[in-house]
Write a structure and sequence with these properties.
Largest sheet: 4 strands, antiparallel
Number of strands: 10
Distance between the termini: 111 Å
Order of helices and strands: EHEEEHHHEEEEEE
Helix content: 40-55%
Strand order of the largest sheet: 1-2-3-4
Shape: elongated
Strand content: 15-25%
Length: about 210
């Protein structure tokens, strides 16, 4: 038997709970909601159990199936992403090869006239009737055509005349004292340097002034 000690309706408005004491001295508290017409409803009674599920049990099988379904969907998305990335990598590698072949073909096409002129210059040099001036002019023309062909493909000469040494564009291979120039000035160029569209492909080899 339980000795029920229940507060009145006016007290439940504030507390919204009752305490039940049994004969053994144990007690328990249950929260209640007071309706507009004065009826008392237990919060525990308002909780419903899932359909076809015994009271007080949890549907572990259903939860596991849901997790397995979510995992399978995520695995499928990961496999699709891996396949897309692999296709992108292969397509990019193929495009690089094709682009490189196209550039090489264009450059070689521009260099073909230079080969023709080199052949003519070589034949003129071997001809006993050709003079030195004719050969020299032919070589100058070939050099000019070579520079023009490479310039069309972005090649630019690194300027060293009256310039200060810059490690980004120049490579110092020696120093010299020169009282007429300040330290760090380029005194002489030993090998011409080049850039392609702003990127150095070969620095200029220079001699640098060092008076200290």
């Amino acid at each position: 038997m339980y000795a029920h000690q229940i507060k009145g309706a006016d007290e439940l408005e504030d507390g919204k709970k009752i305490t039940i004491n049994n004969e053994d001295g144990d007690s328990a508290e249950i929260n209640f909601n007071l309706s507009a017409d004065g009826e008392i409803n237990s919060e525990e009674e308002n909780q419903t159990q899932p359909e076809n599920q015994p009271e007080g049990t949890f549907d572990f099988d259903g939860a596991i199936k849901n997790l397995q379904s979510e995992l399978a969907a995520k695995n499928e998305r990961i496999l699709r992403l891996q396949a897309d990335f692999d296709n992108f990598r292969k397509r990019t590698a193929k495009e690089k090869i094709e682009l490189r072949a196209m550039i090489e073909q264009e450059i070689l096409t521009d260099l073909l006239p230079l080969l023709d002129n080199l052949g003519r210059a070589s034949a003129a040099a071997e001809d006993e009737n050709s003079d030195t001036e004719t050969v020299r002019k032919g070589l100058e023309m070939i050099n000019r055509e070579t520079v023009n062909a490479m310039t069309r493909h972005g090649l630019e000469v690194i300027d060293t005349e009256n310039k200060m040494f810059d490690p980004n564009f120049h490579q110092a291979v020696g120093t010299v004292q020169d009282a007429e120039k300040e330290d760090g000035a380029i005194a002489a160029e030993f090998q011409r340097g080049y850039t392609v569209r702003g990127k150095v492909i070969r620095p200029a080899m220079v001699q640098v002034v060092n008076n200290s």
